[in-house]
Amino acid sequence: MAQKKYVYFYGVSKELTEGDSSMKAILGGKGANLAEMANANLPVPPGITISTEACAYYSKTGGKYAPEMEKQLKVQLKKLEVNMGKKLGDPKNPLLVSVRSGAAVSMPGMMDTVLNLGLTDKSVLGFVEQCGNERTGWDCYRRFIDMFGDVVMGPYTGLTHHDFEVELEAIKKKYRAKEDTDLTAEQLKELVGIYKKVYQNKVKKPFPQDPIEQLDLSIRAVFGSWGSERAEKYRQINKINGLLGTAVNICTMVFGNMGAKSGTGVAFTRDGGTGHSKPMGEYLIDAQGEDVVAGIRTPRHLDDMPDEESKVWKKVHTDLLKIMARLEKHYKYPQDVEFTVQEGKLFMLQTRNAKRTGLAGVRWAVEMATGKDFYTGESQPKILTQKEALMSLSGEDLEQLLFPIFDIIAEKKGKVITAGLPAGPGAAVGKIVFEAADAEAAVAKNADEKVVLVRHETSPEDVGGMWAAQGVLTSTGGMTSHAAVVARGWGKCCICGAGSLKIDYKEKTVTIAGKVYKQGDWISLNGSTGNVYAGQIPTQVSPVVSAVVDGKASAKKDPIYKMYEQVSKWSDANRTINVRTNADTPKDSKAARSFGAEGIGLCRTEHMFFEGDRIWAIREFILAEDQKARKAALAKLLKHQQKDFEGIFKAMDGLPVTVRLLDPPLHEFVPNSKKDQQEMAKRLGVPLKKVTERVQELHEFNPMLGHRGCRLSITFPELCVMQTQAIIGAACKVAKAKKPVKVLPEIMIPLIGTKAELDFLEKIVRTQAEAVIAKTGVKVNYLVGTMIEIPRAALTADEIAETAEFFSFGTNDLTQMTFGYSRDDIGTFLPDYLNEKILPSDPFQHLDQTGVGQLVKMGVKLGRETRPDLKCGICGEHGGDPESVKFCVKAGLNYVSCSPYRVPIARLAAAQAAIKG
Ligand code: PEP
Ligand code: MG
């Protein structure tokens, strides 16, 4: 049997490179992209990737290497040594490597990089010889002990970077060195001795002098970090499922800390916050990788590179920009690259799709496909097709364009107390907290609580708190710091590097310009400008909402609106199904239509029963002793309902409107408290006892499975009569108005389980509708259909379609009844189910395609066997969930229906499903 391949080689030449960017699942994102860059002959330091499958094996077996892995690693290591002409741990000519984690999806929760692996007391001397720079040699060794101690041994021993940092500060003080770079080789050598002691104190073993042991421990640390709490949390928040594990990248070291012609940096081909197409980045001269992200020295901006003292930087800058443009074109996605310059020679250490906000995502997509800057009109290379642009977006990206921003006037009046880097756009208003755990706890206690997390800097352990907070404010770190990158990925408001913050974690205070702010004080962040304000600045709707919903002419000129419009147009040109909305009022109907809704898929009539005095009419109906009294009560509702329908038909002129007959159990309309019951008795002129008795009668053990839906109208046909009169009455009235409205009413009967239920009510509906039409003399075409929301209805859809002219899948109830999970009580056990991975996600948010989806498919198939032109749609909450929408396209539905603000998202998802085919 052929043995499984666990260890891959990349670099040196295309021929020697194994793998490419299509192998992310096995090589991880980093490994796959390094191979891809090597294939494209880009300057990549050669290396080895251990596959994610090896990690999966390690996790499954509680820490065993996969058979053959070590042997394969040995072979590949040899290949690397031969090609580099160096040997790991060699006292004369040592090979140094970095060890890095890299899953298929980039995950800040996992192990950080270890650099300079292979250095020992002996090999450091050879390395000094090799690079001809004693200072560089000892600097690399002390960094290695620090990183190895913190990253590899830290999780088991409590050793941290801080333990080493204290010693670094002490030696700097001792020798009056201002910067790390001021320390001499001798002083760094002394520091190495101190670091080794720090290591031994905590780890209780000397610092390992065998490079193979160093490598082995590092590989185990990378594999182990996959299952760490913070990595698990990150995956949970970001809904990352189904990955095997992380790969391990063992890369030949190149050195950015070799003096003025060396350096290291990170760069983005476009701005991940605003989406601006200008490359941006940061670098440090005479430094190694971690210095840039750690915020120890303030990095320099990419634009400054050509003006550096040493001439080499001008060419490096040109080369880097060329490579970045090439990578962006190649990957058809803006890239986030890491690079190192060793004595004037540029090396690419990593490339990956850049993290971005929703705004940046939309801007990238439209600009890369139109070849035009939406803000300045300047042209730029066309990199994507219209379809590729749509596929690069997610529903959340579009959703972010609808997020609030600060009210402009209020912000002008606000007092800027400090400013930092605009790392994640949008507006955030909340109470100050200093610990991620406090942010999480506050929101867990009260979901409406708004907090802003204020810290020196964030680390992967803070992701839970960052997620819970409205925004994040840090005093150190640049645009590529942890806080910035994570927040941007989520589209969360974030300001970094606000240097004037003086945070006292113990006292839980932050001092800004002499003023002390305590935990719990309000603060407002503008993540698009970097400005920080004291107090609460009111927010205002996004330009898209202002242009679309309010029709504001000025907002229509806003580039953000124009980009939204472009994406929407492309979505409509590509999608194959309709998008309707769930709306119950003329106002919501109008808003939904301006977001592109092509009709109403669900008008829940019961929502109209609560407004104003109407609740008293329905309560009168509930208390009525006989049909006559019930009819009298309903007559009061009729005129209100008819008026509402008139407004809705007008808003949806020319488009179909599906109105559902009353659905919820009647107990939802009566009060529970004694006080309210007394008021009800008084208002309706009946004794209190009558009210309390009726309320008791309406009590059900399982109201969701009780007297609701079509069952109500079967018991009280006068309900169905009144509602049909209101719907068709309204339709006839607006259809014959001076300015006639084109009406397409669809009357929908809820919660059908048998054909007989539908037949019973269909007859009443048709009789009443025909009577109204005859009386008004207006020819209105209408349909009578049903919801498919009980499994039995899906199973007998062929019979039901004999009567029903359309089906609308009510996947809220269908999910409830298929799983047997109460939709109102799932919160009590869902967290456990998600934690234990018993459910992949909340089935009320994301359609369970295997189970509930099966019933949808069956319903469509059986229904159309009876009635080939049967119109089928979905009106459960899933109608606005992108993945569920894609399923609906595949299942052959004619439309999805969702809440007004989700309409743009559903349009995009429908287009993506059609493009994917
Ligand atoms: C459904 O059950 O999916 C539905 C749309 O109806 P409701 O949520 O009103 O029960
Ligand atoms: Mg329902």
TrEMBL record:
It catalyses: pyruvate + phosphate + ATP = phosphoenolpyruvate + AMP + diphosphate + H(+). Residues 566-913 form the PEP-utilising enzyme C-terminal domain. The active site is at H482 (tele-phosphohistidine intermediate), C875 (proton donor). Its cofactor is Mg(2+). Mg(2+) binds at E789, D813. GO terms for molecular function: ATP binding; kinase activity; metal ion binding; pyruvate, phosphate dikinase activity. Coiled coil: none annotated. Substrate binds at R604, R660, E789, G810, T811, N812, D813. Belongs to the PEP-utilizing enzyme family. This is Pyruvate, phosphate dikinase.
